[in-house]
Amino acid sequence: MAAPAPQRDPTEDRLAAMVLPQNGWTDAARKAALARLRDMGMPNRRDEYWKFTRPDTLVQPQAPSAGLFVNDEGPLFDDMDRLKIVFVDGVFDPAASDDLTMSGVRIDRLAEQADIHWAADLYGQLEAAGHYVPRPLAALNTAYASDGVLVHVTDKAKKPINLIYLHNDENSDAILHHLIRLDGGAELTLLETGPAAARLNKSMEVDVADGATFHHIRAQGRDHERRAVTHIFARLGAGSVFKSFTLTVNGRLTRNECVIELTGDDAIAHVAGACVGDGDFHHDDTVFVTHDAERCKSRQVYKKVLRNGAVGVFQGKILVKQGAQKTDGYQISQSLLLDDDAQFLAKPELEIYADDVICSHGSTSGAIDDEALFYMRSRGVPAAIATDLLTLAFLAEAVEEIEHENLRDALVERLRGWLMRHRT
Amino acid sequence: MLTIKDLHVKLEEEDKQILKGVDLTVEAGKVHAIMGPNGSGKSTLSYVLAGRDGYEVTGGTAHLDDVDLLDIEPEERAAAGLFLAFQYPVEIPGVGNMTFLRTAVNAQRKARGEEEMSAAEFLKVVRARARELQIDADMLKRPVNVGFSGGEKKRNEILQMAMLEPRMCILDETDSGLDVDAMKLVATGVNALRDAGRGFLVITHYQRLLDHIKPDVVHIMADGRIVKTGGAELALEVENNGYADILAEVA
Q1: Are B171 and B202 in contact (CB under 8 A)?
Q2: pLDDT at residue A348, as a whole number
Q3: By three-state DSSP, how is residue B88 classified?
Q4: C-alpha angle with apex B202: B199 to B204, nearest 5 degrees?
Q5: How many CB pairs under 8 A join A and B?
Q6: Minimal CA separation from B238 to chain A, in Å
């Protein structure tokens, strides 16, 4: 009988392949994050929040390679006036990026040796506070992030910032960490587009001060084979607004975690996502919204269109702390299963410690409505087009969370294109 | 124009024969009415012609001119010129009424090898037709049939018919759920479409609708067959004496 192979520690295996970056002002935060990571250990299937998603490929030392995807769709938001910041396989590309100056906003890079006080107070802090459940891949990110942007918004930003993530190397393994701070009353729209890398681990910590407004619209790249784990940690001051929408088209594995703390009264948080997957596609939205102030509103709206073995996961929680009276919390997660092979796994959770709140949640799985399909066909609309229209109608509730009409239209066009390419 | 011969239909899921040999010919320019008691197979006939799932044709044929209807998909039947006004128009949340109509009109045009209607041209035509049916701009913008009253849904059916300009129109109990004023409005819409090149098959329980849409021929359907055919006076006979007398007479 062969002796069993010695037990290997996946955390140390991964860390052995990496070098802890040094850049002065983040060093203490990185060391603290590394200690958190070692304490938690890498995620595995036995962990409560990893039951539906296999973390192996996100954890293993080498990024699984991912082929490059080319189609004839042009870059997203190309006709919009925005400030472009380009990362190629996780490396900042100054030549492709715009000048990083804009009135009302100060933009720096994480990789630069600047001592940036506001960022030093934020780096890793919201992540560290966000471990209501262990998020070891976020701690890994804080410890090892190689680059990212530090965006300090002091006023109304003149135009959106677009982080553009290009993927040119089939074996790239990127770790990016962004910090966004909005001062009182400041406003920013942040766009994120592109696949980024064969494997991406991305974190964003967003500190939204009283009365500030942050809009975030993200389109995760169309690469079929890419993998990604992302975290958003947001802290919302009184009367502030945070709205985030994510479109996910393709990708073998995507885990998007969103951790939001409503810490000031009358704050508003909307998080929404639409994803479409065909075949080897696994998409996981794990959302945790904490109400820790009075009269705050939160909405979680997630819609998934799945077919041909694609898997969708939704784990969403609303935590209402004691004293968070007049909370208005809403959560909906729905899937449209276009065939019998697709799968949707949902775990909605409410945990409420205040007695004067409204919280509602719902989760459904369904197929295309046969009655509606026949009705449309009887008017001459071919089955494929009718199915596309019904699918877009299903996604509409999530897509309508995007306030900017031109951004919304651009994303709907992307969805339309995907649906046309993925007809039966 | 519409030629149905010895049509036999059963439910797909269970062993239940609904149509037991329907013979019917509707000529261009004519309005035929089918009346009959509940469960006689009137609505099944309309669904089978339109191509709804759940039925199995076990015998017979149905042609629109020389097009074999039973051999093609619902959207191909529509493009060939068949239109069914539903008894219960379907609500489609999230799909705008205008988007739906324009998609349908242009899909049919494309299927027939005709040029698609431009957005501007479409808008002009749809506004004019909608006005005639007292359909306001708000109804056009709303999702298909969502939140429409019974009367609004039926008027919306007639608007679709007016936009699609089918050669053969089947109206399945279009009068159900309508008050007298709404029925008149719908009838006016239908009558405006009467044309030498267009046939109508009006399915109804009651003679009321036929006061407003004057039929050329009236058929009585019972137990999956046409049991009696006559002129408009046959509808009056049903109104006065009920179906029992007629059914007893043909039994």
Answers
A1: yes
A2: 96
A3: coil
A4: 175
A5: 79
A6: 31
What are the CA-CA distances from residue A332 to residues A124, A270, A344, A404 (Å)?
A: 30, 12, 14, 22
B34-53: pLDDT as tens digits: 999 889 999 999 999 999 99
In terms of Cβ atoms closer than 10 Å to its own Cβ (0-12, 13-18, 19+), residue B235 is buried
A372 neighbourhood in chain B, CB within 8 Å:
90-92
Question: For B237, what's the count of Cα atoms within 13 Å in the CB-facing half-sphere?
Answer: 18
Quickly tell me which residue has 């006979």 as its tokens.
B237
Q: Averaged over B106-126, what is the pLDDT?
A: 94
**What contacts A355, CB < 8 A, 6 or more positions away?**
A325
| Per-residue pLDDT reduced to its tens digit, A217-231 | 999 988 899 999 999
Q: Is A99 helix (H, G, I), strand (E, B) or coil?
A: coil
- d(CA A37, CA A44) in angstroms, rounded, equals 13
CA A306/CA A342 separation, integer angstroms: 6
| B103 → closest Cβ in A374, A383, A389 | A389
The 10s digit of each residue's pLDDT in B164-221 is 999 999 999 998 888 888 899 899 999 999 999 999 999 998 888 999 999 999 999 9
φ/ψ region of A279 (left if φ > 0, alpha if ψ in -120 to 50, else beta) reads left
Q: Residues 6 or more apart from B92 whose CB is under 8 A from it?
A: A369, A372, A375, A376, A390, A393, B100, B143, B144, B145, B146
Quick one: average pLDDT of B49-59?
96
Distance CA B23, CA A19 (A): 84
Identify the contact set of chain B against chain A, taking CB-CB distances under 8 A: 50-53, 73-75, 77-79, 83-84, 86, 89-95, 99-100, 103-105, 107-108, 111, 143, 160, 164
| CA angle, B140 then B143 then B146, to 5° | 105
CB hemisphere CA count around A387 (13 angstroms):
18
B108·A380 Cβ contact <8 A? yes
C-alpha–C-alpha distance, residues A155 and B202, integer Å: 67
> A1 pLDDT exceeds 60?
no
All residues of chain A having their beta carbon less than 8 Å from the beta carbon of residue B77 are: 378
Q: Is A385 close to B103, i.e. CB distance below 8 A?
A: yes
Identify the CA nearest to B167 among candidates B39, B237, B78.
B78
Length of chain A: 424
For residues A11 and A37, the answer to whether their CB atoms sit within 8 Å is: yes
Q: How far is A124 from chain B (nearest CA, A)?
A: 41
User: Which pLDDT score, from 0 to 100, does residue B52 have?
Assistant: 96
pLDDT, tens digit, 9 for 90 and up, residues A181-208? 999 999 999 999 999 999 999 999 999 9
Question: Is the Cβ–Cβ distance between A169 and A198 less than 8 Å?
Answer: yes
Contact: A381, B95; criterion CB under 8 Å: no
Closest partner residue to B94 among A380, A383, A394, by Cβ?
A394
Residue B177's pLDDT is 82
